Amino acid sequence: MLGTVLIVDDDASVRDTARLVLAREGYGILTASDGHTAIELMSTEDVASKVCALLCDLEMPHVNGKELIDHFRMRFPSIPIVVLSGASDEVYLEGIAQEGVCDWLRKPFTREILLEKVRTASNLFTLRQGGR
Fold first, then answer.
1. Measured between alpha carbons, how far is 78 from 54 in angstroms, rounded to an integer?
2. Which of 12, 40, 62, 98 gives 34 a disulfide partner, CB atoms 3.0 to 4.6 angstroms apart?
3. Class level of CATH domain 4-128
């Protein structure tokens, strides 16, 4: 099995689509409907040690995407973050990429683009871990 991807989005159809595509490719999957739930999932070392990438929506209830990104950058700096967004403003999304995320993905996304972004993030995670 490839690494585990944590998918955080308040839209169940987005979570399910990403989960199905990535699981078929051999990735382990964890899902959360908001940032608070994602933080709780990552609070145990057993779970946190398996995650190689975070797919994160920006607009969510409770703990939003920017707050979750800040949490990950502080607590899990080696885990690459791919932002999921329905925003059509590329300047805004490029700005998010400048804030320390690996990449961004506009919703709705294709299977190919999702896989490309997650493979890149997973490879970056491996490099950050010293090639392990």
1. 11
2. 62
3. alpha beta
